[in-house]
Amino acid sequence: MTRYLIFLLLPVVLLFSCSRKITDSGNASYYADSFKGRRTASGAIFRQGKRTAAHKTLPLGTKVTVTNLKNGRKVKVRINDRGPFVQGRIIDLSKKAARKIGMLNDGVVPVKITYKKK
């Protein structure tokens, strides 16, 4: 009976231990048009029409869900740059991502970011 229970519970334990979702909150801003065409920290050319973002510490390539806490709208982005380097801000979004969560008129909004720890 004990063996049966171990074989039953082991996959459940492994499933929950493999992918933990991490959440952080703070303010988000978006890139100015002057960044268009510049190289990002990942080496890619920055384009406002892609769903990308900058974060100070997350590994480049990390996929993050950003939720605008003012209106509940969400967008998935890929981290490909470093920043923002303004106190109180945790993520800089491309204009396409900012438009998706309805923050273009505000410029800076409170957000929650969620990602899986690798």
Automatic annotation (TrEMBL):
Pfam families: DPBB_1. Its main location: membrane. The keyword Cell wall biogenesis/degradation applies. Its EC number is 4.2.2.-. One of its GO terms (cellular component) is plasma membrane. GO terms for biological process: cell wall organization; peptidoglycan metabolic process. InterPro entries: RlpA, RlpA-like_DPBB, RlpA-like_sf, RplA. One of its GO terms (molecular function) is lytic endotransglycosylase activity. Keywords: Cell membrane, Cell wall biogenesis/degradation, Lipoprotein, Lyase, Membrane, Palmitate. Residues 24-113 form the RlpA-like protein double-psi beta-barrel domain. It is found in: Cell membrane. It is a lipid-anchor. Lytic transglycosylase with a strong preference for naked glycan strands that lack stem peptides. Belongs to the RlpA family. This is Probable endolytic peptidoglycan transglycosylase RlpA. It comes from Niabella ginsenosidivorans. The gene is rlpA.
